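Researcher: Here's the sequence for the chain we discussed earlier.
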Amino acid sequence: MEKVRIGVFGARRGANYAQIFAKLTDRFDLVAICDKDIETLKTAEKFPGTPVFADFDSFLTYGKENGMNAVFLANYFYEHTPFAIKCMEAGMDVISECTAASTLKECVELVEAVERTGRKFMLAENYPFAAPNLEMNKFAASGKMGKVVYAEGEYNHSGPAAGLRALSASSPYHWRCYLPRTYYLTHAMGPLMFATGSMPEYVSARASTSPMLHELVGDSRHNCDCTAIMFCEMSNGMIARFTGCTAMASDYSRYRLVGEKASVETTGVVGGGVRKMYFAHTKPEDEPQETNYVVSQGDFGDYGKIAASGGHGGGDTWVSLRMYDYFVKGVDPFFDVYRSVAMSATAILAWRSCLHHGENFRVPDFRDMKDRAECLKDDLTPFPDDNGNGATLPSELPYTGK
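Model: Thanks. This is the structure I predict for it:
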């Protein structure tokens, strides 16, 4: 059986995927691991015999000499595009974690690199493959909901303030210290797109600043907005409301689809809860009006059974299996380069909307040459470089101390 001979760039988050590749030996050969942080590279010691590199170009050169045909990008959140292009120009397919691009210009550059090189690109968006989201997708695909007219997605993932202060002390310009709340939207928006097959067309957004976060982290973080709420008009006619990565006191991420005939929502991505409800006048005779139940990965076929023991509720394993199907079998992924950059562009423009009190922005169509030409002029970013220079947008709303 043909295998994906893969390298991993980013040994912290990438180590989770490297473990999956090391288990799925019928599909993957782990060729090399790269990370610029020598201390982080020590995590690669759990993969004996796998070469490790602190220099990306040396990693690519070794890969080319040893049959590496794909790279998993798990490096810094906002730095994926230039490395993805290098990989594709070296003849390798690419899977990218969390976001595809951090500027509109990069969105165009990534799309054109895929088209120019003929290499494959997909996003490693794993939340559509949490068990309750798989059940939500199944119900949406059944036709019993009718047209989906409204969708919600909320992603919650906060961390201890002490960890952020320590990170800032060691890396004062780390992306996590400057990340606007809209930018990390893939885990909230991705499941909604996946379940409905839709694309964002317009976005408006608002953010809310937290005085408590300012008190907790001080100068450690240059964005103390606790949440951003985004509204999108979608290509299937529905409207969608979703968050970025929030820092609210909420216990889990949640998702909801509302159709003309019925609705479905998750009641705990980790716990696997699902709630389905029909309107009284649309309820099928053989089904109750409301159903609450729990699902698990094992309910979703062979891939679910393989994913049952995987990380992130099985989502990382699903992504790996879908990557194999794409890179080896040619089965197109949902999050191809066009859908991936559409999500990135939504995040970028949603932040500008927050800075302009909810102004509505059209999301570019990156198949359209006119839209590409406009976006190639746009490299605005809230992220500074390693020396603290280069940021051309604010990274948080104006803070008054109130």
